[in-house]
Design a protein that fits this description.
Length: 79
């Protein structure tokens, strides 16, 4: 299962999909959310990676790993 989490002021939006079983809609929704975030030049990280691998900054939807969590980090706003 692949997981995409978007963190924002309303909390945590979680989308999960499996490449072999996902409906086209689930994958398309996750990809649109990812690409919208990347277009704004906001960071995306792959965390809790299989085998205890280090967290990784990613820039492409194709880099999302099975079993890891992909975190879409919000913009930091000074107050």
């Amino acid at each position: 299962m692949k997981t995409v989490r978007k963190l924002d002021k309303t909390g945590d939006t979680c989308l999960q999909f499996d490449e072999t079983e996902a409906t086209a809609e689930q994958r398309a929704q996750a990809k649109a959310l990812f690409e919208e975030h990347v277009m704004k030049k906001l960071p995306v990280f792959s965390t809790n990676r299989p085998g205890g691998a280090e967290d990784l900054k990613i820039t492409s939807f194709d880099q999302i790993e099975e079993g890891a969590e992909t975190i879409l980090v919000p913009a930091i706003v000074a107050g």
